[in-house]
Amino acid sequence: MRSSRIEKAPLGLKLAAVAGLAFMHLPILLIFAYAFTTEERSYQWPPPGLTLRWFEVTWNRPDVWAALELSLVTAATATAIAIVLGTLTAAAVSRTRFFGRETISLLVILPIALPGVITGIALRAAFSVGDIPFSLWTIIVGHATFCVVVVYNNAVARFRRLSGSLVEASMDLGANQFQTFRYIVLPNIATALLAGGMLAFALSFDEVIVTIFTAGQQQTLPIWMLEELVRPRQRPVTNVVAMVVVLVTLLPILGAYYLTRGTDQPRGRLK
Questions:
Q1: What are phi and psi of 37, to 5 degrees?
Q2: Cβ neighbours of residue 212 under 8 Å, at least 6 residues apart?
Q3: Which pLDDT score, from 0 to 100, does residue 1 have?
Q4: Residue 152: is it exposed, middle or buried by C-beta count within 10 angstroms (0-12/13-18/19+)?
Q5: How far apart are CA 148 and CA 193, in angstroms?
Q6: Confidence of residue 261 (pLDDT cuts 50, 70, 90)
Q7: Full-prediction pTM beyond 0.85?
Q8: CATH topology for 61-259?
Q9: Residue 7, Cβ neighbours under 10 Å: how many?
């Protein structure tokens, strides 16, 4: 009988894993370190000194707060739109059969597969043809194009794991469509929707390329950072803002990871 014991990884494989993690995450840790440096114009290692002054400077910058507010509003609105459209599309594709279903599924996920510059150029052209001025809503529409894909992928996978017999049992017991959705379908897809929404929020919050083509003169936080990088005296402030972006995007990603663990068992209650 074969043993189910998990063997320990060899030393070489462990070192390779550590090297890969260091390659990916050391630059991010450097940003955190330089947010506390006393040096304004250049990057030195180790930092010549540590200070909290740049946090105070950043806190008192109204342009930072304006960019942060725009990013949060954009990400929250685009995520809300994505949850509605992504869930409805996932339900249609996974729970019904119709001509062209697979083609529609491909078209839904296409925006996230295309380069961001292509999506940005296409949206800008569409806004120009429609004579639509750049505003908060043009940014939201641009972000929603790829946020819908994230929610859709999470929702469609959960819908396909949801047993049709649960829905049929609910209907047989006299539940109407709303009751079946509330007590059977929603409990089984809730964590997938929440995880998809968190990932969509994180992607929208730090999006740059599509925003450049749809924002006009407005500045989201990532666009503000991009423009501030050319000003040497503002590098510490930019690093502080970068820390905020990392934390704001990291927390939803971690939340989505923990929400999607151990969700294979069907849930719900019948009245």
A1: -75, 150
A2: 120, 223
A3: 45
A4: buried
A5: 11
A6: low
A7: no
A8: MetI-like fold (1.10.3720)
A9: 6
